[in-house]
TrEMBL record:
Protein's UniProt name: Protein kinase domain-containing protein
SUPFAM superfamilies, A to Z: L domain-like, Protein kinase-like (PK-like)
Any GO molecular function: protein kinase activity
Membrane-spanning segments: 289-313
Species name: Papaver somniferum (Opium poppy)
Membrane-related topology note: Single-pass type I membrane protein
Signal peptide range: 1-21
Domain Protein kinase: 361-635
InterPro entries in UniProt: Kinase-like_dom_sf, Leu-rich_rpt, LRR_dom_sf, LRR_N_plant-typ, Prot_kinase_dom, Ser-Thr/Tyr_kinase_cat_dom
Main location: membrane
Keywords: ATP-binding, Glycoprotein, Leucine-rich repeat, Membrane, Nucleotide-binding, Receptor, Repeat, Signal, Transmembrane, Transmembrane helix
GO cellular component terms given for this protein: endomembrane system
Length: 657
């Protein structure tokens, strides 16, 4: 998370000193502007009246001010469908009492700068897509009475600093991925065998005396429930990894087999704790001069450590940048830095540009191109053939949410594993020269489009075409129904199907770049305001499953007819074929004239599937699971069945082999 630079802090202090008492401090207006800039999608135009040139933000949507309009008291944008990041500048809203951003789509981590908002009473960031650990600095919200962080993707442990929240009444941490123990003196009394424990010895939630309601359910907490939280309902702790027979907990498999080990007591815990107490008592008997010497040495060591950290940070800044520029400008205020979580691609192989340059013969072996990307073929030494997709975009146009979109696309593709889906082998991300590339396996027999339309259709016998169709259907069934969340091919056509040496189909989503770049395009709303349209890849693909089904119907028709989806003479293939598809006596006209042989019964089934897939009402189109069942149960793909039906199939088989 980015810290404010010394220059920014000076600007903030000077702004606070010179601002008039009857207007909002300029640094707070700047903080709100930075918050808006970190939002890349505002589909409902909620922020349309947030004008950075307006020195009085009290009339902005979601903003509530004091009666004198000199302090911002609340920022409430709940259920606004906003997508973006939480800007660290929120910490500059020193008078803010309520920060309510629940039920949006905020990404990234919680800025630790929120912890300096001493006036904040309500922090509600629930029901978003936040990730990473909870900043310990949140424990500095001394005025906080309600903190809601539920239904996100937060990880790590609960900071023990939450024990500093003396006014906290309500806490929601449920439905995250939090681990470790719930901080508190869960076994302190039993360990000390009845010794009195003062408030100063309490830790974690055992220090939050005002806490009345809390929910820790559906995380991965281990250990036991702190004794000071026994007043909470049992349901507040269910769905974790506690060894508690009285509440519903996760299975050992879901807990990674570690819950039991983590909950076991260590050998002789009394000895360990009494040893710590004894050491503490012994340390208190040290002479004064020795304690003073230790303090001086500690301070000196602290300065040395701070110097080392600052030096390391400076060196890191001089090397390759980890941050992604949100917007490039000469002015400090016009620049926004977005931090991307590198854990997203932790399990995906990262290739260097030099490796790919060598494999692709200095990027001279181009096998495909579009306005958005170039596709290269390469051969890795002692490895497989690869296809490398390079995005055609300039660095100055590569803003922060595009980087996030790129990384999410990589992570989305990396999870695919099916025999009819081309495997993503890795990615390349470098800043000098600017490079964003995807590395796939390469199917050596070219695309299905090349075989159908460029003089090699005779190589695709009826048997091969049937097997290709069923292979594509199985791949789509896997993408649509066998993985969660579902995945769709952005442009499903014969050019997206590559063939191996034995003509097995491999679906490749080379056109996914278009969905990435489309998110950078801005559109003008009804009121003339500019909003950035950034559709989440996963959400968009869930909505486009029916579109994939239609495309499969068109592709199936293209395979059996050998005709392109569109040509000037006949127009659209679907329109041309409609007059034959519904007439059993005429469906033979749909078959490719290049075919020496085909089975009428198979063709009848295929035309039936085409009719279902291209139905004008999307909701009535079948799922790919149903389509697969139809094809697999009603079409016999064995060679013997072909031999029985036609002597010509023997010759066709010989040619095919």
């Amino acid at each position: 998370m980015r810290l404010l630079s010394p220059f920014q802090l000076i600007c903030v202090i000077l702004g606070a000193l010179f601002v008039s008492s009857d207007s909002i401090a300029s640094n707070e207006v700047w903080a709100l502007t930075a918050f808006k800039e970190a939002i890349y999608d505002d589909p409902n135009l909620v922020l349309s009246n947030w004008d950075a040139l307006d020195a009085d933000p009290c009339s902005w949507a979601g903003i509530s001010c004091s009666p004198g309009r000199d302090r911002i008291l609340a920022l409430n944008l709940s259920s606004s469908s906003l997508k973006g990041f939480l800007a660290p500048e929120l910490g500059l809203l020193s008078s803010l009492e309520k920060l309510i951003l629940r039920k949006n789509n905020f990404l990234g981590t919680i800025p630790k700068e929120i912890g300096i908002m001493k006036s904040l009473k309500v922090l509600d960031l629930g029901f978003n897509q936040l990730s990473g650990p909870i900043p310990p600095e949140i424990g500095g919200l001394s005025s906080a009475t309600k903190i809601h962080l539920q239904s996100n993707g937060l990880t790590g442990s609960v900071p023990v600093e939450f024990g500093n929240l003396g006014n906290l009444v309500e806490l929601r941490l449920d439905r995250n991925k939090l681990q470790g123990t719930i901080p508190g003196n869960s076994n302190f009394q039993s360990v000390l065998n009845g010794m009195n424990v003062s408030d100063s010895n309490a830790n974690g939630f055992c220090r939050t005396s005002q806490l009345k309601r809390a929910d820790f359910s559906f995380n991965f907490f281990v250990g036991g429930t702190p004794s000071c939280l026994k007043f909470l309902r049992r349901s507040s702790f269910q769905g974790n990894c506690f060894q508690d027979k009285n509440s519903k907990q996760r299975s050992t498999q879901q807990c990674g087999g570690t819950s039991h080990a983590n909950s076991l007591p260590v050998a002789n815990p009394e000895h360990r704790h009494f040893g710590n107490v004894s050491k503490h008592l012994h340390a208190s008997n040290k002479p004064g001069w020795l304690l003073s010497l230790e303090i001086v040495i500690g301070i000196a060591a602290g300065f040395l450590l701070l110097f080392a950290i600052l030096t390391a940070v400076k060196r890191c800044k001089n090397q390759s940048r980890v941050v992604i520029p949100w917007k490039k400008a000469a002015s400090m205020k016009d620049q926004k830095i977005i931090y991307i979580d590198s854990d997203l691609l932790m399990d995906v192989v990262r290739w260097s540009r030099q490796e790919l340059e060598v494999a692709c013969e200095d990027f001279s072996n181009i096998i495909g191109s579009s306005t958005d990307s170039l596709v290269y073929k390469g051969i890795v030494k002692d490895g497989p053939e690869i296809a490398v997709i390079s995005l055609c975009v300039k660095e100055e146009n590569w803003i922060g949410h595009l980087e996030l979109s790129f990384q999410r696309e990589v992570a989305d593709l990396a999870r695919l594993n099916h025999e009819n889906i081309e495997k993503l082998l890795g990615y390349c991300r470098e800043s000098s020269p600017f490079s964003r590339m995807l590395v796939f396996g390469y199917a050596s027999n070219g695309t299905l489009s090349e075989h159908l339309h460029y003089g090699e259709g005779c190589h695709l016998s009826w048997i091969r075409r049937i097997k290709i169709i069923i292979g594509i259907a199985r791949g789509l069934r896997y993408l649509h129904t066998e993985i969660q969340p579902p995945f769709t091919v952005s442009e499903l056509n014969s050019s997206a199907v590559y063939l191996t040496e034995d003509f097995s189909p491999k679906l490749v989503d080379f056109e996914n770049w278009k969905t990435v770049l489309a998110r950078s395009k801005k559109t003008t709303g009804p009121s003339g305001n500019i909003s950035c349209k950034f559709s989440d890849s996963v959400q968009a693909r869930q909505l486009d499953i029916q579109g994939n089904t239609f495309s499969f119907g068109v592709l199936l028709l293209e395979i059996i007819s050998g005709r392109p989806p569109y040509c000037k003479d006949r127009g659209y293939l679907v329109d041309w074929a409609k007059e034959y598809l519904t007439q059993p006596e005429a469906i033979s006209y749909v078959a490719d004239p290049e075919l020496r042989h085909f089975r009428y019964d198979d063709l009848k089934v295929l035309c039936e599937v085409v009719n279902l897939c291209i139905h004008p009402e999307p909701s009535t189109r079948p799922s790919m699971h149903a389509v697969c069942n139809m094809l697999e149960s009603r079409i016999n793909t064995t060679i013997t069945s072909e031999m029985k039906d036609s002597p010509l199939a023997w010759a066709e088989l010989a040619i095919s082999s």
